[in-house]
Design goal:
This protein is an alpha/beta fold. It has twelve helices and ten strands.
């Protein structure tokens, strides 16, 4: 009887261990610069909810918005080291590690999001970059989403490129944005994002450039009566995972992560597409005059910057520009 109890107890313990192994919960972290009212955060919430649902509760994704874990570069470095599981990154931002990646943020090189997807998935430069990110940085691109196209607001109408001459244009401290301003004849004025509203309100700067979603979120339309559809830089958003994280997950959960990252990217893209379609009417209803300048002259003005990029990256840079701009 005592022996039978011992065997039964061991069987029960084995069963609990097996159940525990099958139902292990993986608590993972995702950091982002975006705040918790942004489309990026909404998409990340959607990602987290679907990961929990499709993994039967085995994956619990905790979100850290508002740059709680550092800026975008810091979080990419954390991913590389395996101390952070997921983050967002723009393809062009990888130029901090691989200078040739800057081609994806050169003004007017990328036409639209479909073009961006082809440029990152179907080209020699795109495939090379993905391989370097995997092998050199120890992280993987799970999916790609649209994250808005940058436009220009101002305190005067921009009907043509000449209207930007001498304009003090607030830009982030990023080469592509600085060069956009400089090459169209404006005076680039780097400034912290938190200071922009007051600077526009007091005319310390004459304009700024951002995606439509940011223009609304920061209420720049309250202090800038003009919006020019300059379409100068398209922002994408990559869903990134640490290779360390994926190696810890069993195969079935790796599959869940990959599938749900694709699904989240589709939702992410739709959020921006739907919002941009509505925002032009919103701005007009709030007294903003929207202009559509001829972008041919804007595009042509960027050649000196393209030449700098090609000189810096040699044959690789020249081939990258040629390959991406020739895509249908």
């Amino acid at each position: 009887m005592k022996g039978m109890f011992k065997v039964a107890g061991m069987t029960m313990l084995f069963g609990m261990m097996a159940f525990g192994a099958n139902e292990k919960v993986y608590t993972l972290k995702m950091g982002m610069v975006a705040n918790n009212s942004s489309n990026e955060y909404k998409a990340a919430e959607y990602f987290a909810e679907n990961l929990a649902k499709e993994s039967n509760g085995q994956i619990k994704l905790e979100l850290y918005p508002n740059a709680q874990l550092g800026d975008d570069r810091t979080m990419l470095e954390q991913l590389s080291a395996g101390v952070l599981d997921f983050t967002f990154a723009e393809t062009g931002r990888f130029n901090i590690f691989f200078p040739e990646a800057q081609v994806y943020s050169l003004p007017y090189v990328i036409r639209d999001f479909d073009h961006m997807k082809k440029a990152t998935n179907d080209t020699k430069i795109g495939k090379s970059l993905r391989n370097k990110i995997d092998k050199n940085l120890n992280m993987t691109i799970l999916s790609q989403a649209y994250n808005g196209t940058r436009q220009t607001t101002s305190n005067k109408a921009i009907e043509k490129m000449a209207d930007m001459k001498g304009m003090k244009l607030r830009v982030p401290k990023a080469e592509a944005n600085l060069e956009y301003a400089k090459n169209v004849g404006a005076s680039p004025t780097p400034m912290a994002f938190s200071e922009v509203y007051l600077a526009l309100q007091t005319n310390a700067v004459d304009g700024q450039e951002n995606p439509l979603s940011a223009i609304r979120a920061q209420k720049f339309y309250e202090v800038q009566p003009y919006l020019a559809m300059t379409n100068h830089i398209l922002n994408d958003q990559l869903y990134m995972v640490s290779n360390e994280t994926m190696s810890r997950l069993p195969k079935n959960l790796q599959k869940v992560v990959k599938e749900q990252a694709e699904k989240a990217a589709e939702y992410h893209t739709q959020l921006f597409v739907d919002e941009e379609a509505q925002l032009l009417e919103f701005f007009k209803e709030n007294g903003v005059t929207v202009t559509n300048p001829n972008l041919d002259e804007f595009r042509k003005s960027m050649k000196p910057f393209y030449d700098v990029y090609i000189k810096k990256n040699g044959k690789t840079g020249k081939e990258a520009v040629a390959e991406i701009t020739s895509l249908n």
